[in-house]
Amino acid sequence: MNLEDIYATSAEEQRRVTELFESYPPRREDDFFHPDCTKEYYFPVEDGEIRVFHHLPKNPVGRRPVVFVSGWGTIPEGFKDFFDVVNGRIECYYIETREKNSSRLDRRKAQLGMDQLARDVQKVLQTELQSADTGELRDFALIATCWGSTILAHGLARRILSAPTVVLFDPMHSLWFPKWLLKWVVPLIPLWLWNLIRPVGKRIALKGMNEPTQRRRAELFVDNATLWKWKRSGIQVQDADLYRSMPHIQQEVLVMNGVQDKIHEQEHYPKLAALIPKGRFFHIPVDESQREQLLGLASVLFAQVTKDEGLPQELRGFERSIRS
Protein backbone atom coordinates (compact mmCIF):
# COMPACT_ATOMS: atom_id res chain seq x y z
CA MET A 1 0.00 0.00 0.00
CA ASN A 2 1.56 3.25 -1.17
CA LEU A 3 0.39 6.04 1.15
CA GLU A 4 1.79 8.76 -1.10
CA ASP A 5 -0.46 7.60 -3.94
CA ILE A 6 -3.46 7.23 -1.65
CA TYR A 7 -3.11 10.75 -0.29
CA ALA A 8 -2.09 12.40 -3.55
CA THR A 9 -4.60 15.16 -4.31
CA SER A 10 -5.41 16.56 -7.72
CA ALA A 11 -6.45 20.11 -8.53
CA GLU A 12 -9.77 18.72 -9.71
CA GLU A 13 -10.42 17.13 -6.33
CA GLN A 14 -9.60 20.37 -4.56
CA ARG A 15 -12.00 22.22 -6.84
CA ARG A 16 -14.77 19.71 -6.13
CA VAL A 17 -14.25 20.04 -2.38
CA THR A 18 -14.48 23.82 -2.64
CA GLU A 19 -17.72 23.53 -4.62
CA LEU A 20 -19.19 21.15 -2.04
CA PHE A 21 -18.44 23.51 0.81
CA GLU A 22 -19.95 26.38 -1.15
CA SER A 23 -23.10 24.31 -1.78
CA TYR A 24 -23.72 23.82 1.95
CA PRO A 25 -22.46 26.94 3.72
CA PRO A 26 -22.68 27.16 7.52
CA ARG A 27 -25.99 28.42 8.87
CA ARG A 28 -24.96 30.64 11.75
CA GLU A 29 -27.98 32.93 11.69
CA ASP A 30 -30.09 30.34 13.57
CA ASP A 31 -29.21 28.50 16.75
CA PHE A 32 -28.89 24.73 16.25
CA PHE A 33 -29.77 24.25 19.93
CA HIS A 34 -32.94 26.33 19.89
CA PRO A 35 -35.65 24.28 21.64
CA ASP A 36 -38.01 24.72 18.67
CA CYS A 37 -35.82 22.41 16.58
CA THR A 38 -33.50 20.59 18.99
CA LYS A 39 -34.49 18.47 21.96
CA GLU A 40 -31.84 17.95 24.65
CA TYR A 41 -32.47 15.03 26.96
CA TYR A 42 -30.79 12.44 29.15
CA PHE A 43 -31.07 8.86 27.99
CA PRO A 44 -31.06 6.04 30.60
CA VAL A 45 -28.18 3.58 30.29
CA GLU A 46 -26.64 1.07 32.65
CA ASP A 47 -25.70 2.79 35.94
CA GLY A 48 -26.64 6.25 34.74
CA GLU A 49 -27.64 8.53 31.88
CA ILE A 50 -25.96 9.99 28.81
CA ARG A 51 -26.92 13.19 27.02
CA VAL A 52 -28.48 13.16 23.56
CA PHE A 53 -29.44 16.01 21.24
CA HIS A 54 -32.14 15.40 18.62
CA HIS A 55 -32.28 18.03 15.88
CA LEU A 56 -35.44 17.94 13.77
CA PRO A 57 -35.81 20.96 11.46
CA LYS A 58 -39.18 21.93 10.00
CA ASN A 59 -38.18 21.35 6.37
CA PRO A 60 -35.22 18.93 6.26
CA VAL A 61 -33.51 18.20 2.95
CA GLY A 62 -32.55 14.76 4.18
CA ARG A 63 -34.45 11.56 3.51
CA ARG A 64 -33.23 9.74 6.59
CA PRO A 65 -31.71 10.72 9.95
CA VAL A 66 -28.03 10.77 10.81
CA VAL A 67 -26.70 9.63 14.18
CA PHE A 68 -23.39 11.25 15.06
CA VAL A 69 -20.90 10.18 17.75
CA SER A 70 -17.98 12.50 18.53
CA GLY A 71 -14.51 11.85 19.92
CA TRP A 72 -12.98 11.24 23.34
CA GLY A 73 -14.16 13.64 26.03
CA THR A 74 -15.50 16.21 23.57
CA ILE A 75 -18.03 18.93 24.36
CA PRO A 76 -20.54 20.51 21.94
CA GLU A 77 -18.63 23.80 21.85
CA GLY A 78 -15.86 22.02 19.95
CA PHE A 79 -18.26 20.96 17.18
CA LYS A 80 -19.80 24.31 16.34
CA ASP A 81 -18.72 24.03 12.68
CA PHE A 82 -20.46 20.64 12.45
CA PHE A 83 -23.69 21.99 13.93
CA ASP A 84 -23.64 25.05 11.66
CA VAL A 85 -23.63 22.84 8.54
CA VAL A 86 -26.33 20.33 9.57
CA ASN A 87 -28.42 23.10 11.17
CA GLY A 88 -31.88 23.28 9.59
CA ARG A 89 -30.97 20.75 6.89
CA ILE A 90 -31.24 17.22 8.31
CA GLU A 91 -32.64 15.23 11.19
CA CYS A 92 -29.68 14.47 13.41
CA TYR A 93 -29.03 12.69 16.70
CA TYR A 94 -25.85 13.74 18.52
CA ILE A 95 -24.88 11.15 21.17
CA GLU A 96 -22.45 12.01 23.97
CA THR A 97 -20.78 8.85 25.26
CA ARG A 98 -20.28 8.27 28.96
CA GLU A 99 -16.66 9.43 29.36
CA LYS A 100 -17.81 12.99 28.59
CA ASN A 101 -18.49 15.50 31.33
CA SER A 102 -22.22 15.58 30.56
CA SER A 103 -22.94 11.97 31.60
CA ARG A 104 -24.66 11.26 34.90
CA LEU A 105 -23.16 8.06 36.26
CA ASP A 106 -23.12 6.08 39.47
CA ARG A 107 -19.47 6.71 40.31
CA ARG A 108 -19.25 3.65 42.55
CA LYS A 109 -19.96 1.06 39.88
CA ALA A 110 -20.24 2.63 36.40
CA GLN A 111 -18.14 0.87 33.78
CA LEU A 112 -16.45 2.87 31.02
CA GLY A 113 -14.91 0.11 28.92
CA MET A 114 -15.34 -0.45 25.18
CA ASP A 115 -18.25 -2.90 25.36
CA GLN A 116 -20.20 -0.57 27.63
CA LEU A 117 -19.58 2.47 25.43
CA ALA A 118 -20.84 0.54 22.40
CA ARG A 119 -23.87 -0.84 24.29
CA ASP A 120 -24.91 2.69 25.22
CA VAL A 121 -24.92 3.74 21.57
CA GLN A 122 -26.87 0.67 20.51
CA LYS A 123 -29.49 1.27 23.20
CA VAL A 124 -30.07 4.78 21.86
CA LEU A 125 -30.36 3.43 18.31
CA GLN A 126 -32.83 0.71 19.29
CA THR A 127 -35.00 3.11 21.27
CA GLU A 128 -35.00 6.20 19.07
CA LEU A 129 -34.94 4.67 15.58
CA GLN A 130 -37.24 1.70 15.92
CA SER A 131 -40.21 1.74 13.57
CA ALA A 132 -43.56 1.71 15.36
CA ASP A 133 -45.06 -0.27 12.46
CA THR A 134 -42.49 -3.03 11.96
CA GLY A 135 -40.40 -3.01 15.12
CA GLU A 136 -37.29 -2.87 12.91
CA LEU A 137 -34.78 -0.04 12.88
CA ARG A 138 -35.46 2.73 10.40
CA ASP A 139 -32.99 3.55 7.65
CA PHE A 140 -30.32 5.87 9.03
CA ALA A 141 -26.63 6.69 8.69
CA LEU A 142 -24.35 6.16 11.68
CA ILE A 143 -21.39 8.55 11.48
CA ALA A 144 -18.57 9.07 13.96
CA THR A 145 -15.19 10.69 14.29
CA CYS A 146 -11.96 9.89 16.12
CA TRP A 147 -12.67 7.95 19.35
CA GLY A 148 -16.36 7.83 18.44
CA SER A 149 -15.31 5.89 15.34
CA THR A 150 -13.30 3.55 17.54
CA ILE A 151 -16.33 2.85 19.70
CA LEU A 152 -18.48 2.06 16.66
CA ALA A 153 -15.83 -0.15 15.06
CA HIS A 154 -15.42 -2.07 18.31
CA GLY A 155 -19.18 -2.47 18.60
CA LEU A 156 -19.48 -3.68 15.02
CA ALA A 157 -16.67 -6.18 15.48
CA ARG A 158 -18.22 -7.53 18.69
CA ARG A 159 -21.75 -7.67 17.17
CA ILE A 160 -22.93 -5.22 19.83
CA LEU A 161 -24.33 -2.75 17.34
CA SER A 162 -25.21 -2.44 13.68
CA ALA A 163 -26.58 0.19 11.30
CA PRO A 164 -27.71 0.39 7.67
CA THR A 165 -24.84 2.75 6.77
CA VAL A 166 -21.66 3.26 8.82
CA VAL A 167 -19.15 6.03 8.15
CA LEU A 168 -16.01 6.29 10.30
CA PHE A 169 -13.91 9.43 10.11
CA ASP A 170 -10.36 9.13 11.43
CA PRO A 171 -10.85 6.01 13.59
CA MET A 172 -8.29 6.02 16.40
CA HIS A 173 -6.60 2.60 16.31
CA SER A 174 -5.96 2.86 20.07
CA LEU A 175 -6.34 5.56 22.68
CA TRP A 176 -3.81 8.27 21.86
CA PHE A 177 -2.47 8.56 25.40
CA PRO A 178 0.80 6.60 25.79
CA LYS A 179 0.20 3.02 26.93
CA TRP A 180 2.93 3.24 29.59
CA LEU A 181 1.10 6.23 31.08
CA LEU A 182 -2.23 4.39 31.19
CA LYS A 183 -0.72 1.20 32.61
CA TRP A 184 1.84 2.40 35.13
CA VAL A 185 1.14 6.04 35.98
CA VAL A 186 -2.57 6.82 35.72
CA PRO A 187 -3.72 4.11 38.22
CA LEU A 188 -1.25 5.32 40.87
CA ILE A 189 -1.89 9.06 40.83
CA PRO A 190 -4.88 10.20 42.97
CA LEU A 191 -7.47 12.43 41.37
CA TRP A 192 -6.67 15.42 43.59
CA LEU A 193 -3.12 15.35 42.24
CA TRP A 194 -4.34 15.00 38.63
CA ASN A 195 -6.34 18.19 39.12
CA LEU A 196 -3.22 19.99 40.30
CA ILE A 197 -1.05 18.82 37.42
CA ARG A 198 -3.71 19.11 34.71
CA PRO A 199 -2.05 22.18 33.06
CA VAL A 200 1.30 20.39 32.90
CA GLY A 201 -0.29 17.21 31.60
CA LYS A 202 -2.10 19.16 28.91
CA ARG A 203 1.15 20.70 27.66
CA ILE A 204 2.84 17.30 27.57
CA ALA A 205 -0.09 15.60 25.80
CA LEU A 206 -0.37 18.30 23.12
CA LYS A 207 3.34 18.87 22.61
CA GLY A 208 4.08 19.01 18.90
CA MET A 209 0.47 19.63 17.92
CA ASN A 210 0.96 22.65 15.68
CA GLU A 211 -2.44 22.81 13.97
CA PRO A 212 -4.06 25.86 15.61
CA THR A 213 -7.72 24.93 15.21
CA GLN A 214 -7.36 21.35 16.41
CA ARG A 215 -5.06 22.39 19.26
CA ARG A 216 -7.63 24.89 20.55
CA ARG A 217 -10.29 22.20 20.42
CA ALA A 218 -8.10 19.66 22.23
CA GLU A 219 -7.27 22.20 24.94
CA LEU A 220 -10.97 22.92 25.37
CA PHE A 221 -11.76 19.24 25.84
CA VAL A 222 -8.95 18.71 28.38
CA ASP A 223 -9.96 21.80 30.36
CA ASN A 224 -13.55 20.50 30.60
CA ALA A 225 -12.67 16.90 31.39
CA THR A 226 -14.24 15.09 34.34
CA LEU A 227 -11.04 13.47 35.48
CA TRP A 228 -12.46 10.45 37.29
CA LYS A 229 -14.27 9.44 34.09
CA TRP A 230 -11.16 9.95 31.96
CA LYS A 231 -9.06 8.00 34.44
CA ARG A 232 -11.45 5.04 34.74
CA SER A 233 -12.17 4.88 31.03
CA GLY A 234 -8.51 5.29 30.10
CA ILE A 235 -7.59 2.31 32.27
CA GLN A 236 -10.49 0.18 31.00
CA VAL A 237 -9.95 0.87 27.28
CA GLN A 238 -6.14 0.82 27.24
CA ASP A 239 -6.02 -2.51 25.39
CA ALA A 240 -8.44 -1.48 22.63
CA ASP A 241 -6.81 -2.07 19.25
CA LEU A 242 -8.63 -1.65 15.95
CA TYR A 243 -5.91 -3.55 14.12
CA ARG A 244 -7.26 -6.61 15.93
CA SER A 245 -10.94 -5.64 15.68
CA MET A 246 -11.39 -4.52 12.08
CA PRO A 247 -11.11 -7.99 10.44
CA HIS A 248 -14.16 -9.13 12.46
CA ILE A 249 -16.54 -6.50 11.03
CA GLN A 250 -18.92 -8.19 8.60
CA GLN A 251 -20.83 -5.29 7.08
CA GLU A 252 -19.63 -2.61 4.68
CA VAL A 253 -17.92 0.29 6.44
CA LEU A 254 -16.77 3.53 4.84
CA VAL A 255 -13.59 4.94 6.38
CA MET A 256 -12.89 8.59 5.62
CA ASN A 257 -10.19 11.15 6.28
CA GLY A 258 -9.69 14.78 5.44
CA VAL A 259 -6.59 16.03 7.24
CA GLN A 260 -3.56 15.06 9.33
CA ASP A 261 -2.66 16.30 12.80
CA LYS A 262 -0.91 14.89 15.85
CA ILE A 263 -3.97 13.01 17.09
CA HIS A 264 -5.32 12.02 13.67
CA GLU A 265 -2.46 10.17 11.96
CA GLN A 266 -3.27 9.55 8.32
CA GLU A 267 -1.07 6.50 7.89
CA HIS A 268 -3.51 4.32 9.85
CA TYR A 269 -6.81 4.98 8.08
CA PRO A 270 -6.33 3.19 4.73
CA LYS A 271 -4.66 0.30 6.56
CA LEU A 272 -7.59 -0.03 8.95
CA ALA A 273 -10.11 0.18 6.09
CA ALA A 274 -8.26 -2.55 4.22
CA LEU A 275 -8.56 -4.88 7.23
CA ILE A 276 -12.36 -4.73 7.07
CA PRO A 277 -13.52 -7.40 4.59
CA LYS A 278 -16.00 -4.90 3.07
CA GLY A 279 -14.10 -1.77 3.99
CA ARG A 280 -13.70 1.20 1.65
CA PHE A 281 -11.47 4.25 2.06
CA PHE A 282 -12.04 7.87 1.03
CA HIS A 283 -9.73 10.86 1.23
CA ILE A 284 -11.48 14.24 1.04
CA PRO A 285 -8.72 16.86 1.25
CA VAL A 286 -9.50 19.86 3.48
CA ASP A 287 -7.63 22.37 5.59
CA GLU A 288 -7.32 21.45 9.27
CA SER A 289 -9.64 24.34 10.14
CA GLN A 290 -12.38 22.67 8.04
CA ARG A 291 -12.30 19.25 9.70
CA GLU A 292 -15.54 19.61 11.68
CA GLN A 293 -17.24 21.36 8.78
CA LEU A 294 -16.42 18.31 6.64
CA LEU A 295 -18.14 16.07 9.19
CA GLY A 296 -21.26 18.18 8.85
CA LEU A 297 -21.05 18.14 5.06
CA ALA A 298 -20.75 14.35 4.96
CA SER A 299 -23.70 14.05 7.31
CA VAL A 300 -25.87 16.20 5.04
CA LEU A 301 -24.87 14.18 1.98
CA PHE A 302 -25.51 10.78 3.60
CA ALA A 303 -28.87 11.99 4.90
CA GLN A 304 -29.98 12.57 1.31
CA VAL A 305 -29.44 9.00 0.10
CA THR A 306 -30.98 5.76 1.32
CA LYS A 307 -29.14 2.62 2.31
CA ASP A 308 -30.01 1.02 -1.04
CA GLU A 309 -28.69 4.04 -2.97
CA GLY A 310 -25.37 3.69 -1.17
CA LEU A 311 -22.75 6.36 -1.60
CA PRO A 312 -23.68 9.99 -2.30
CA GLN A 313 -22.76 10.90 -5.86
CA GLU A 314 -20.71 13.88 -4.64
CA LEU A 315 -18.25 11.60 -2.79
CA ARG A 316 -17.64 8.93 -5.40
CA GLY A 317 -14.56 10.51 -6.88
CA PHE A 318 -12.76 10.53 -3.55
CA GLU A 319 -12.51 6.77 -3.04
CA ARG A 320 -9.00 5.33 -2.98
CA SER A 321 -7.85 1.86 -3.96
CA ILE A 322 -6.59 0.01 -0.86
CA ARG A 323 -6.41 -3.53 -2.19
CA SER A 324 -4.15 -4.97 -4.84
Distance between the termini: 8 Å
The run of helices and strands is HHEEEHEEHEHEHHHHHEHEHE
Strand content: 5-15%
Say how many strands there are. 10
Helix content: 25-40%
Mean pLDDT: 89
Instruction: Assign the structural class, choosing from mainly alpha, mainly beta, alpha/beta, alpha+beta, or little secondary structure.
Output: alpha/beta
Main beta sheet: strand number and arrangement? 10 strands, mixed
Q: How many H/I helices?
A: 12
Uncertain regions spanning at least 5 consecutive residues: none
Shape: globular
Topology:
Layout lengths: L2 H4 L4 H13 L14 E8 L2 E8 L10 E4 L10 H7 L5 E4 L8 E2 L8 H15 L12 E5 L1 H11 L7 E5 L9 H7 L5 H15 L6 H12 L3 H10 L5 H4 L7 E5 L10 H8 L3 E5 L7 H13 L15 E2 L4
Parallel strand pairs: 3-4, 3-6, 6-7, 7-8, 8-9
Antiparallel strand pairs: 1-2, 2-4, 2-5, 9-10
Outline the structure in words.
By secondary structure, the protein is α/β, with parallel strands linked by helices. Helices cover 37% and strands 15% of the residues. The chain contains twelve helices and ten strands. Strands 1, 2, 3, 4, 5, 6, 7, 8, 9 and 10 form a ten-stranded mixed sheet that branches. Strand 8 (253-257), helix 11 (268-275) and strand 9 form a beta-alpha-beta unit. The longest helix is centred in the middle third of the chain and has 15 residues, at 114-128. It is globular, with a radius of gyration of 19 Å. The termini are close together.
